[in-house]
Amino acid sequence: MADILTRICKQRELDVAEARAAASDEAVLAAARAAAPCLNLADRIAAVPCEELVVAAEFKRASPSKGDIACDLEIGAQVREYAEGGASVISVLTEPTWFKGSLEDLAAAREAADLFAAETGKPRPLVLRKDFVVDRYQVLEARARGADTVLLIVAWLETADRVRALLEVARSLGMEPFVEVASLAELRVALEAGSRVIGVNNRDLRTFKVDPDMTGRVVGELQRLSGGAAAAEATDAEDRLRGAAAAAVVFAFSGIKGPSHVRELRQSCGEVSPLRGVLVGEHLMRAGDARAEVAALRGAWPHKAAASVASAAELLASSEPGARSKICGVCTADDAVAAARAGASFVGMILCPGTPRSVGAEEAAAITASLRAFRETESSSLLGQARDRKAHMAARSFALVRAAARARPLAVGVFRGQGPSEVASLAAAAGVDVAQLHGSEDPSDAGWAELAVPIVKVIHVEVSPATEAAQAAAATRAAAAAPEAEAEAAVTSALAQARAWAPVASALILDTKIKGAAHGGGSGVSFDWRLARLLTEASGGELPVGIAGGLTPSNVRAAAEASGAFLVDVSGGVEASLRRKDGALVAEFCVEAGRARLQPE
C-alpha cells in the first residue's frame, strides 16, 4: 500500500490534469499576471525585528491523521482573528480530498486579508497556498487566486533540479516560496536548489508521525554548514551551499501546540539562530479565541526558560491558556478517538471492577492502542520528568501537561483503593500513560514511588446532599466573597492530603463526595469551585489542582475560571447513555474548557 504522501500527490496529479483540461496553462498564467500584486515572503521576514516571532497561522479544515477539524468554520472570520492577533502569514490548505480545502478558500483568505489592511491601516498578512505542489500549474493557480507564496515539498520533488524549476516559476511571478524539508538530506536538496525560506516539517508526511526534535537538528545543521571556514580547495558548489545555509531562515512546521512549545523551540535552537517563525494549524483551529492564541504565540518570544519559573501556577500559566480536558469513563475505542479528535488532553478508563463504567485490562489496552494510533508523537520520552519522584511536584505536573499537549491525548487508568502492585500490573497490561488514584490509598506506601507511570491523586471534597439548584448556587458563589468556615475547613483538609501526596503525585484533582456515601465521585454534583483556587493559594502556588464533579459543557468554562483549575474532568456530563459518550457534547466540553482564562484579569 502506498504511503500517505504518495497517495496524496498521485491524486493531485489527477486533479491538475482535470483542471488543465478546463483552463490551459496560458489562460491561468494570464490570470496570474493580472492578479493583485503580491508581497515577497523573504522581504517581509527580513523587515520583522529579530526579537519578534513571525507567526504563520493556518486555516485547515481536516487532515488525514485527525479527520475533520473545523469543516464549517467561516474562513473570512478566522483570517480576521489571525490578522488581529498579529499573524504575518495566513496559510490556507487547498488540497480537497484529505484536507477538504479549495482555491475558493485561498481567494477568500486574500479578500479577508486585504479588508483587514484597508480597515486598520496595518500591514496585510501574506497569504500562502499550502498544498502538495506536483506541477507548475498549481503555482500559476495560486498566484491567480491572490497567493503571495506557495509551499514546495522536497519529500515529493526529491531533486534540487525539480525544486529549482518550481522556485524559478514562483519567483518569475514575484513569489518567494516556503520550501519544506523533513530531514537533513532534504535540507541539502533545498539549499542546493537555492531556497531562502525553509519550513521544517516535524511530521513525516509518509507516516504522519511527528518528530519534535527535527527543527533543532535542521537548525544545527544549518549552523554547521554556514559556520565552516572557507577552504582554499572548496568547490564552487560547496561555497554556494555554505552561502545558502548562511542566508536561509527557518520556520518550524507541524506539531506546534502553543506558547510553551515556542519557548522550548527557541531554547533548543539558541538565542541566535536561523529560526524565525512557526506555522501553526490545528492548535489555532481548535482554539476558542484564535486572536488571543496568535498573540500568545507571539508573546512567547523571546522565551522564558521553564527552569526559572518556581511555582506550579506560574509553570502552568506559562504553557497554553485554557483548561485541559479529561474525558473519563470511556468504554470504547470509538469514543476514545472521538475525544481525541475533539482535542481532549486526557482520556480516562475505569480499571476498578464493580463500577458501572469499568473496563477490563484487555478492553483498556484496545482503547489505548487506538489513542496511540491517533497520536502524532509518542508519549514515553516526554513523560520522563513527570515520572521522576525526585523532581518538584510543579515540575512533574508541567511535564505531564506538556506531554499531554505534544502526545495528545494521554491514556489514564483510574483506580480506586488498589495497592501499588495491582495498579502497576493493570497499568502495564492496559498500556496507560498515567495512573489516577481515586480511593483511600495510603501515600506512605513505598510502592507508589516505584510506579512506572505518573500519578494523579483525587482528593474528595465532602458536601451535604442538596437540591440541584442549591448545588449550582454553591458552585458559582463569587470568588471574591470571604470563604465560609466550611470552605476553610475543606481547604485545610485538602491541603494536608495534598502535601502527603506531593512526594509522588504529579497532579491533584478535587472531586465531590456526598456525605454518607461509601465512595467519592460519580455523583454528578459539583462543589464550591473556589476551593481549588484557595487550595493553590494556600500552598503558595506549589500544588497543581484540577477539578471534577458535576461538570458539563454549559458550566465548564465558569468552573475553570472560578477554580483556576488546569484540568477539568468529566464523565457523566458528556454521556449519550451509560458507557457511551455523546460526541457533540464531548466536542463542546473541550472547546468551552479551552476558552477559559485561568488567571484573574
UniProtKB/TrEMBL annotation:
It comes from the Eukaryota. Pathway: Amino-acid biosynthesis; L-tryptophan biosynthesis; L-tryptophan from chorismate: step 3/5; Amino-acid biosynthesis; L-tryptophan biosynthesis; L-tryptophan from chorismate: step 4/5. One of its GO terms (molecular function) is indole-3-glycerol-phosphate synthase activity. CDD domains: IGPS, PRAI. The keyword rRNA-binding does not apply. SUPFAM superfamilies: Ribulose-phoshate binding barrel. GO terms for biological process: L-tryptophan biosynthetic process. It catalyses: 1-(2-carboxyphenylamino)-1-deoxy-D-ribulose 5-phosphate + H(+) = (1S,2R)-1-C-(indol-3-yl)glycerol 3-phosphate + CO2 + H2O; N-(5-phospho-beta-D-ribosyl)anthranilate = 1-(2-carboxyphenylamino)-1-deoxy-D-ribulose 5-phosphate. Coiled coil: none annotated. Residues 5-297 form the Indole-3-glycerol phosphate synthase domain. Gene3D superfamilies: Aldolase class I (3.20.20.70). Keywords: Amino-acid biosynthesis, Aromatic amino acid biosynthesis, Decarboxylase, Isomerase, Lyase, Multifunctional enzyme, Tryptophan biosynthesis. Residues 391-470, 496-589 form the N-(5'phosphoribosyl) anthranilate isomerase (PRAI) domain. HAMAP family: PRAI. This is Uncharacterized protein.
